[in-house]
């Protein structure tokens, strides 16, 4: 079973929006912003101006995604990435897919000259916190991580 981590592509629109629904509604319990808004967001990220989305694919099916947004750090006076989303379907959490998706985001940030990659996770998401701690991330006072 091959695992591929890659940039999202236009043909990923519908399966990626399905994963985003699982993430927004299923995992976090937030209201769905609507297909049109999600599709517009995905299309915007495909242009790679404000950010980029990566997908994890196994046997031609998307099993996870991560979103990096581009911004600046005043303290560093340099661009940074913010990993706003990091999600895998339940059977793939804690697997090679999770590690490779995270490593891909980190490598993208480093290889493209960003000072660091940061993100937050819910205070109750202890499984994710263990994963990030084990990855060598630095915990902030708001369960905020930075790495590079």
UniProtKB/TrEMBL annotation:
Pfam families: Acetyltransf_1. Keywords: Acyltransferase, Transferase. Residues 3-148 form the N-acetyltransferase domain. One of its GO terms (molecular function) is N-acetyltransferase activity. The keyword Protease does not apply. SUPFAM superfamilies: Acyl-CoA N-acyltransferases (Nat) (SSF55729). Transmembrane segments: none annotated. PANTHER family: DIAMINE N-ACETYLTRANSFERASE (PTHR10545), GH14572P-RELATED (PTHR10545:SF29). This is N-acetyltransferase domain-containing protein. It comes from Paenibacillus mucilaginosus 3016. The lineage of its organism: Bacteria, Bacillati, Bacillota, Bacilli, Bacillales.
